[in-house]
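Hi F.,

I've been meaning to write this up properly since the lab meeting, where we talked about keeping a consistent format for the predictions we share between groups. The idea is simple: the sequence comes first, exactly as it goes in, then the structure tokens exactly as they come out, then a line or two of notes. No screenshots and no reformatting. I'm using this chain as the first example so we have something concrete to point to.
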Amino acid sequence: MSTRPDLRATFDLGDRSFVDDPYPALAQARHVAPILWHDGLGTWVTTTHAAANDVLRDRRLGRILRPRSQGHDAWTTFDWLHADSILDSEPPKHTRLRRLVAGAFGRGHVARLRPSIEQVAADLLDEAERVLDRDGRVDAIETYAEPLPVLVICELLGAPTEDWKRLRDWSQAIVKMYEVAPSQHAQEDAQRACADFAAYVEDLAAARARQPGDDLLTSLVQERDGGDRLTPRELVATVVLLLNAGHEASVNGFGNGLASLLADAGALDGVLGRLDDPVAVERLVEEMLRHDSPLHLFERTATTDVELHGVTIRRGEKVAALLGAANRDPGVFDAPDRFDAGREPNPHLAFGAGIHFCLGAPLARMELQISTRALLERLGPLEVVEAVRRPTFVLRGYEALVVARR
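Output, unedited:
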């Protein structure tokens, strides 16, 4: 690594003020260099859109995980759930997995979900409106954003909808391990969640093998049992990844974006007048994803010495694409700190780039477009009366976002 003090990032990921609003510090870092060394992380980090994009696309940088289970059997399931997933594998394994899973996804499963998403949103808004009318305020995260994506994933996979809280809890426990310094309690919760979640999916897959349905899990089981197949562990890892990534990105993308929109009453009024325009809703959702991205850090490891943007990343060193910094780069986005609901073009990196571009992006976009439009149409002009940030940086979101009618 470089020992030059001028190539060091100084922001503290453990500082609550930074976690609450990292953008000023990320802007300062961007003025120093496109890629900096961060002592606390022990990795290089990107500060610009171009550097993040290059890190995500450079095939000399891979997803190379260090197993946690060395001498600790409690981590065994956690390790293979990641090692056998699309997100944490590299070619040729990644190529095979992505082709098989994309083939299952491509059988109309996402398109058929539109009526279900609209119905789930309507049902949840019935309850949200009752709470709002009764109390004058409602938590948009707890009542709407949290349950919606899990219920949609249940529909996609053919899982019982009454299991959504268990699935959400397992997902939340696992993703806490992606933060910088998870506590011992968080680690133990993640171990249990991995074991329980894997067993649940194995049972569900066995039921689909006996009695196929028209859901994505049945298609994945057929890929597992076909000629060029998913292994049993790869199937389970795929389902767990779909829920973890689909849930967290949707909840945080919705909550962060809604907060950004409601912070500007003028912008909200403009949006409310264009909800019948699908293009306007699409642009609104893209700006929600850009302005306060749900995922802020995606890590890669150099498989050989790599020269990028004035630094040498040595073989074995890690480099993290900071997606939130990339999406506020003034070299790419005009007035990047401003929420512009009609921004076009909007080449944000919220879903990543390269071979690890989010496979579920079409579903996430459709879900956010439907759920955001439905909420604004039903509840009208809103304002935030209480906002509680999660104390996390990598997965950025709200624990609570309480809104009231304006």
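Notes:
DSSP finds 16 helices and eleven strands in the chain.
The chain has one domain: 5-405.

If this format works for you, I'll send the rest the same way.

G.
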